Amino acid sequence: MRVQMGVKNQECDDGETNLGMDWWDDPRNYTCYHPDRKFIAKESRSVLSCDDVPPNHSPKHFCMDKELTYPELLPTFADHRPIWPVFGEYKFVPVQRWLHNIEHGAVVMLYHPCTHHTLVHKLRKLVTGCIRKHIITPYHLTEDKPLALVAWGCRLEMTEVNEQEVIDFIRRRGLKGPEGDYPKEGQYTHELVKKSSYTIRF
Q: 134-138 and 107-111 as β-strands: parallel, antiparallel, unpaired?
C-alpha cells in the first residue's frame, strides 16, 4: 500500500510519534565536545559532487516502524519519511527527514557542531537570504570539510565559505527535485529553532 505523504497518521508517521526510530534528542548530534578547538576557515578547495539520479526517480516513503539507513554520509536522494520538516533552522533534524525537503526543492545547510560560529553565521546568512526552502542543522561532517550544502542530486562540501560559490550552488541546484515547485509547508517541527521567512533574492 502506498504511503501518503504530508498527511499526519499516527499509525504511520505524524511527525511526533516514535521519533526515536531516527533520533530522539541525543545531544551528541548537536554538541561540540571539543569547544577549545573550533574549526576555522582553511584554504582548501571545496568539493562539488553530483550523483546519477535515475530519470523520473521518485523516492519511497516509509513509516516509523521501519529503520532507514544510508550508505553515504551525505545522500542527495533516497527513501525517507512521509512527513517533512517545516523549512527553517533546527537544533537538529535527522537525515531521514531532510531528504524529503530535498525532494521538494530545498537546499540543506549542514555544519559540524565544532565549526566556528563565524563560519556558520556567514553560511547561514547566505542560505537564508537566497532561498526560502532551506533546512539548517548540525550534522557530523568530517573535520576536513565541516560545512556542506545538499540539494537534489548534488552536494557541496566546504572548509571555508566562498560567497559566490554558495550563491551559484543555490541558484543552480535549489528548487530542483521531482517536487521542487510543490508549495506546501512541512508538518514536522521537533526541535525547530526558527521557521524560514520569505526571501526576495530569488
A: parallel
73: part of which helix (H) or strand (E)? none
Nearest to 90 by CA among 190, 22, 187, 199: 190
In 3D space, the residue among 174, 106, 54, 13 whose CA is nearest the CA of residue 5 turns out to be: 13
- Whole-model pTM: value is 0.94
Q: Give me the DSSP letters along 106-171.
A: -EEEEE-TTB-HHHHHHHHHHHHHH-SSEEEEE----SSS-EEEEETTEEEEESS--HHHHHHHHH
**Residue 102 · residue 151 · CB < 8 Å:** yes
Write down the pLDDT at residue 178. 84
Buried b (16+ CB within 10 A) or exposed e, 14-43: bbeeebebbbeeeeebbeeeeeeebbebee
Exposure string of 46-68, with b = 16+ CB inside 10 Å and e = fewer, is: bebeeeebeeeeebebbebeeeb
Cα(181)–Cα(189) distance, integer angstroms:
21
Mean pLDDT (whole number) for 95-112 = 97
The answer to whether 109 and 123 have CB atoms below 8 angstroms apart is yes
Which DSSP symbol is given to 193?
Answer: E
Contact between 118 and 147 (Cβ < 8 Å): no
Q: From CA 64, how far away is CA 21, in angstroms rounded?
A: 7
Mapped onto helix, strand or coil, the DSSP state of residue 36 is: helix
pLDDT digits (tens, 9 = 90+) for 59-84: 999 999 999 999 999 999 999 999 99
